[in-house]
Every structure is written in structure tokens, then in C-alpha cells.
Amino acid sequence: MTVQAIPVPQAVPEQTKPVDVVTDEERAALRAKYLAERDKRIRADGVSQYKQLKGILKLSDDKDPYTEVKPREPLSDHVDFLFLGGGFAALSVCARLKEAGFNDSLRILESGGDFGGVWYWNRFPGAMCDTAAMVYLPLLEEVGNRPSAKYVRGPEILAHAQRIARHYGLYEHALFSTHLETLTWEEENQQWRVKTKEGDNFTATHVAMGTGPLNKPHLPGVEGLEKFERPAMHTARWDFEVTGGGWDGEVMEKLKDKRVGIIGTGATAVQCIPQLGRDSGELFVFQRTASAVAVRGNHEIDPEWFATLDKGWQRKWIANFVQLMSTGIDDVDHVQDGWTDSVKRITGRMIEEAIKNGQDPAELGFTDYVKAYHLTDDEYTSAVRARTDEVVNDKETADGLKAWYRQYCKRPCFHDEYLETFNIPTVHLVDTDGKGVERIDETGVWANGKHYELDVLVYATGFEFSSSYTKRSDLEVYGRNGLALSDAWGEGMRSYQGMHVRDFPNLFIVGVFQGASLISNITTNFTDAGQTIAAMLKKEKELGAKVIETSQQAQDDWVKLILDNYTNFIGGPECTPGYYNNEGHEEGEKERLNGGRYPHGSHKFFEYIADWRNSGEFEGIEFDGKPVAVTA
Ligand code: NDP
């Protein structure tokens, strides 16, 4: 395998380099340590431990602190295509629809006051994306935009979302500050009835849902949350009135003489803590499980270099990223980040081991990959722990910040100021050794049997993940014969290609599961879905059909394909608990379906689906109850 450096004048990307040798004894000791750390954290209540924001926080998830909602007349008209959600899923799909000539009778319904989705809501200071902007930001070439840096901050991402919306004329189709209540299929009219909490009652021929897997923030499962009498907020609803400052790095001047507490040390907290540490009078970081934080190596994008990129560069970069993330092998690595670094390392090791053992690399299989993952992982995570010792001055704090699990048990983090923040004398790590905070009272937080008085409390405690799709979105979808989607999926998601659901005609799910499931770059799933939907609508028009629906057989076969080939070798029950592994509880069929993916990898899924839609046959789909071959 040859992986060359990118032939462009960018700063040489830095990555955390694995330690050279981990002995067999060290590997065995790591195994035992990982399991012991996991066992400390397993809770009987698993995914149900978390609590809702409503009734506890001033800025709950049903409030929009960023846009003043103006009253308007309810709508009672009809649209051809409705998109639920206004994030990158909506923007990417609607952009592709517009490109394909679907110009009118389009509506985008969004609970926030603008486009952006997670980037509209998550305005915590320090918010940025740790997938490289050159591939993460969709439609860069189409809208003529250049990212300012390899990894960009929230405000720039939100501005890009708005730019897409302006470029494709999507604002005129937007219905902001509107909350869907029910979506009901009307068999007699073959359309969806849409009711919102704002009193709208209109119909739509087609509906797409892009409401995201991590859109409903939650609070820790501890006693006394509601008792805290001082300002408190979740990172997904930042309260700038309390902190001052802004989400683009501005100083939060109102915190300068405050004792601030933050609960949680996941991917969000890793970005937020450096800003809080810089600006708070004192900061207490309450940790249940440490994040593994590797080097990020951000750098500016040189405009002159950017101008030299050939037309079609983004498509090429994305294809290269997808290929690497799926196989670890390609001739170049355009992105060169921590994600591609890790997969190249695993594949490289697999081939190296095969050659060493006289195996034919052409005959390597999944077991060899898993073995190589384990070998390289020990070396990599040891290096990340060694980095903690190098960066953090106080030994006890450095030890507390070490992550004792495999890299992909939790969301890998990359940051260049997080560990450094713990060298600021006013920043204190309160490591709870896996127990979490004990309770909260009127004036502060209890942890390790000690009371910490706080003026401001921040929850960086994540989002609903494993609960039902409709519960996460606070809405219900009723398909044929009043079948609720939450019932149809009561025992797990059942779909064809992750997008179509039997008994829910003309409904397109735009997400990541049971399809390409490219978690390392979510937006690629969306732009591709846009092409698929545009192709299907075109076919429907050609056929003069009105209803698009998966056949029962196609869905059953797809579900079987997912279940028969399910593996969670990176996030299984041996991992420390978290939303990647059902909080450490055994994954049943339901969990396997909800987290399921096309078994042959993202790159193969994108190839398969492109062939599928380009063939014009749309195998497995019925138009007005018949396959294309019969209808045409
Ligand atoms: P997470 O669910 O990853 O983290 C929640 C944190 O809260 C964990 O550290 C958890 O500890 C902690 N916690 C929960 N309950 C308690 C308790 N009782 N006491 C103490 N601590 C507690 O949520 P995040 O918001 O950090 O991240 C969610 C996802 O959002 C990420 O995985 C990622 O996909 C995405 N994201 C992406 C970013 C990007 O750059 N692209 C940046 C930020 C987020 P424990 O680990 O023990 O459960």
C-alpha cells in the first residue's frame, strides 16, 4: 500500500503517532484495565438514565433563544414536497431537487428560526467540526465557498448552511419556528396531512425526514437537577445572557468572577472546556469517563492553493475520504486527518502482519482486520495517554484525564487546547472514577462525597440516541391504516436502503442508519440521498404515478441483510458504556437494527445505490403498487 502526501502547499498535518512497542504483558494488562473501568460504569438503568430538559432548565429544547418568533397565520394549502428539518440533510436534498428541476411546491419545515440544524442550535463557545471542512461542508463548489481552515468553527458552518439556502433559493420555501405535531397518510387522497403545534393543517404529496439522530439534548440521571437555584444550561441551548461573549471565541466576560461547573467530558465538552477555562473565575470539570483527545493539527486554508484546485475537486476528495474510511487503502489521502490516519494504520498493519506470517494479503478477511484493529489500537491509545502526561503538568490530573478504552468505543476527539486547559491554575478536574456526579442541590454539585458550590452550571451531557425515532423528534408519523412509525419500529428500525418504509408511502427517511452509515462525515450521506430522491421523483413523473413505496419483500430482505451481517467490533459490550454501545448493555435485535449499516461498507453502498438509481429500474420499489418493469 502506498499512501502519498498531498501534493499541495498545505501545512504538514500532525497526528498523534502510535508508540512503537506494546509488549504482550502490556496488552494483557490493558485488556484487564479496560474491562475493570467498563465494569465501574455499567448502570442497570442504561439508556433510560437520562432526563429531559423541560421543566428543569430555563432554556429547554422547546425554546429558541436565538430567534424571536413572530406570529403568523396558519397554513392550510398543499405542497408537492415537504422536508422536515432544516439542517444539512434538508439543504443537501433540496439543493439536489432544485438542480434536477423541482422548483416549486417545496416546503421546508424547521423548528429553529433559520437553517443549520445542529449548527443552529449548538452555539456553545468553542463549537467546531472535527471532520475536515473540505469534505464536511456540503456543496462547497456549487455555492462557491472556501473554508477558512482545515477544521472550522460553528459560526462559519452556520454561515455556509445559510449560503446554500440563499444560493438555491430555499429561504422562500422555509417555514421556520414551526413544530410538527403529526404526519398522517390519507389513503383516499394519497397524500400526507401535516399538522403543526402552530396550528398549520396542510397536505403534502411527498415528505422527507431529516431530523437527525442527535437532536434532543438530555440531562444526567442524578437527583436534584430541578433544585439548583442558579443559572444552568445545556450546551445545546447556550445562555449568552448568563455568560456574555459569543460562540465565535469572544470572551465570556460575565463569567470572570464566577465559579462555573461543567458536567460531562464528551466531544462537546472537549471543545467547550478550553473557552470556559479561559474565561471563568474558576472552573470545575465533573468527569465520569475521560475522552481520548489526540492532536488535531488545524491550519488555515491558503486561498492561493485553493484557487489551484481543479473543477470537481470536492467530489474527488469526498470519494477519496469515503474509500479510505471504508478500506484504509487509496493512492492518495487528500484529507489527511485523524480519521483517515487511523484506518490507514489498521489496514497497513493487517497487510504487514499477513506478510510477516506468510499469508496471502489477497485472502485477508474481516477477522484479520479486527485483529489488526486491536494491535494498532493498543499502540495508538497508549500514545494518546502518553500525550496526556506530556501536556498536563500535574500528575494526578494527567492520570485522571487518561482514557481506558479502545479508540472507537467513544467518539474520538481531536483538540489542541483541551488538555492544556488543565494547566490553568483556576481549572480543576473533579474525576469521579466512573461514578458520575452524585446529586445536585440548591447551590451546587455533589461528587466524591463533596459539595462544590457553583454560580453557573453547564450540562455537556449529550443527546437522546437509543430511544425511539419519534420520541427523539417529539412527533408521530401515521402511515397506512393508522400505523404509527413508533410502533412499526417498536422493535427496531425496519427499512429498505435506510430510506423507505413499508406502509409509509411517499416518505423518505434521510439519515445515516441502514445505509452508507458514514459516521465520520455525515453530510455525504445526505447529498447522496438527494440524488436518489431526485431520481425517484423524476421516475414517478415519467410513469405518471402518484405513490412510491418499498415492497414488503425488499424491506424484509434488507432487514435480513443488516441483521445477518451485523458486527459491532469497535463498540461492543467490552467497551466502556456510551451511546455507541447501548450504554454497555448487550445489543438485542432492536439495537442492532437501530444502529445497523449496509454490511459491505460505505463506499460499496454509494456504488450500489448509484447503480440502482441510474438503472432506472428502482428494484424493490413500487410505483402505484407495481415495480417499474411492470408499470413502464
Ligand atoms: P456525549 O454523549 O458524547 O457525552 C456526554 C457526557 O456527559 C459524557 O462525558 C458522559 O460521561 C457525561 N455524563 C453523563 N451523565 C453523567 C453523570 N451522571 N455524571 C457525570 N458525567 C455524566 O455528548 P456530546 O454532546 O459530548 O457529544 C455528542 C455527539 O455530538 C458526539 O459523539 C459527536 O457525534 C457529536 N459532536 C461532534 C462534534 C464534531 O466535531 N463533529 C463536536 C461535538 C459533538 P460518560 O462518558 O461516562 O457517559
Can you put this structure into words, describing what you see?
With 632 residues, the chain is α/β, with parallel strands linked by helices. Helices cover 34% and strands 13% of the residues. The protein has 2 domains: 1-41 and 123-153 and 227-462, no CATH class; 79-115 and 170-216 and 465-631, FAD/NAD(P)-binding domain (3-Layer(bba) Sandwich). It contains 21 helices and 20 strands. Strands 1, 2, 3, 4, 5, 6, 17 and 18 form an 8-stranded mixed beta sheet that branches. A 5-stranded parallel beta sheet has the order 7-16-8-9-12, with helices on one face. Helix 10 (313-327) packs across helix 11 (338-356). It is globular. The protein binds NADPH dihydro-nicotinamide-adenine-dinucleotide phosphate. NADPH dihydro-nicotinamide-adenine-dinucleotide phosphate binds next to helix 8. Pfam families: NAD_binding_8. Its cofactor is FAD. One of its GO terms (molecular function) is monooxygenase activity.
- What do the pLDDT scores average to? 92
* Overall tally of domains: 2
Low-confidence stretches: 1-13
The value of Rg in angstroms is: 24 Å
The count of strands amounts to 20
Q: What percent of residues are in strands?
A: 5-15%
The secondary structure category is: alpha/beta
Largest sheet: 8 strands, mixed
GO molecular function, one term: monooxygenase activity
Protein name: Cyclohexanone monooxygenase
Family: Belongs to the FAD-binding monooxygenase family.
Cofactor: FAD
